[in-house]
Design a protein that fits this description.
The two termini are 23 Å apart. The longest helix has 14 residues, at 40-53. This protein has 310 residues and is mainly β. The radius of gyration is 19 Å and the shape is globular. A hairpin with a 4-residue loop joins strand 8 and strand 9. The chain contains 4 helices and 20 strands. 44% of the residues are buried. The chain has a 17-stranded mixed sheet that branches. The chain has helices spanning 40-53, 142-148, 253-260, 306-309; strands at residues 23-25, 56-67, 75-84, 88-95, 99-106, 110-115, 120-125, 159-162, 167-171, 177-182, 189-195, 201-214, 220-231, 237-241, 248-250, 268-270, 274-278, 284-287, 291-292, 301-303. 11% of the residues lie in helices and 41% in strands. It has one domain: Lipoprotein localisation LolA/LolB/LppX (outer membrane lipoprotein receptor (LolB), chain A).
Length: 310
């Protein structure tokens, strides 16, 4: 996807699932002209309680609309998004239900990205992303995409509440900052902006639809089922949308594993895709990967194994 970091792209395949509960509410059209009526600790308590209840989230059978330098007019595809705490993310996009367009995945330590239409592959360590040169950087980083889900625990000691917006300003230990805007009436996320150490915006998210769901243990949780993410690259955005609430799965290992499918361990790069690895200094180095036949009767593919390639 984009010229810039893991364009949250490549989304999703189909899954099987065994009941997730009944959605009962969409994103609130809360009146944010009035001040928040609860304290900072109460608000963070509500958000953290929700976060603790969601271990895994899968949105399948949805769609993604990509806009960037390579898709300036926008491109819509079938999508699958899988999120697992603490930082595992998978995003896949296909057309006609079968042909891969983009795949992005990260296990919280390493990331892999493949743009099948533009024959581009990117791999490396997440810790090197902050120093990545702009030329090879994605607009949407997998670590930021994980944050975009608005499901991380918030440390009250690092948060300041602005009751008029209303929003929480969260200063992270690594020097980054998040601003999480919430609805004044239902206290659900409506927008999030993530800032880098230099004060520049890394990612912004508009939550157009929050889905309230009751889990089997009767815990009520909310999850983002429709959101628009904008990255640093001018004019670049991605809109993720769940088309059917019945294909939203929470805390379901089977659904999560099905979502990743063949990419559960590694992306299988086709022979015609040029793969580049992110170096510690932020530069990108083209690398040659050995061909592997998986299965033997199929065309050879290549796999990046970080334990062998750095």
């Amino acid at each position: 996807m984009l010229k810039t970091l893991l364009p949250v792209s490549a989304l999703m395949g189909a899954l099987l699932f065994a009941g997730v509960g009944c959605p009962d509410r969409n994103h609130p059209d809360g009146d944010n002209s009035k001040p928040l009526n609860i304290s900072k600790d109460e608000l963070i308590g509500e958000l953290n309680k929700n976060s603790a209840a969601v271990r895994e989230l899968v949105i399948s059978g949805g769609s993604v609309v990509l806009k960037n330098a390579e898709y300036p007019n926008g491109f819509e595809a079938e999508a699958t998004l899988a999120f697992k705490k603490p930082t595992t993310i998978y995003l896949g996009a296909t057309k006609l239900g079968a042909t891969n367009i983009l795949v992005v995945k990260s296990d919280g330590k390493y990331f892999e990205y493949c743009d099948f239409e533009h024959f581009k592959g990117l791999v490396g360590r997440l810790e090197h992303l902050n120093s990545a040169t702009e030329k090879g950087l994605f607009s949407f980083r997998p670590d930021l995409l994980s944050m975009a889900m608005a499901l991380q625990e918030i440390d009250p000691a690092r948060a300041v509440l602005d009751t008029k917006e209303p929003k929480l300003v969260i200063s992270e230990a690594d020097g980054t900052r998040r601003e999480l805007y919430v609805s004044a009436d239902e206290h659900l996320p409506v927008k999030q902006v993530i800032y880098g150490k230099d004060g520049g915006v890394l990612l912004s998210v508009i939550y157009e639809k929050m889905l309230r769901t009751t889990l089997p243990d009767n815990t009520s949780v909310f999850i983002p089922s429709e959101m628009t993410i904008t990255g640093r690259e001018e004019g670049a955005s991605i809109k993720i949308r769940s088309m059917n609430s019945k294909t939203v799965y929470i805390n379901n290992d089977r659904a999560f594993n099905n979502a990743l499918g063949d990419y559960g361990k590694h992306i299988k790069f086709p022979a015609d895709v040029q793969v580049s690895e992110l170096q510690a200094d932020g530069s990108w180095k083209p690398i040659d990967l050995p061909a592997v036949a998986i299965p033997p009767d199929k065309n050879p593919v290549r796999i990046w194994r970080p334990e062998q390639n750095g």
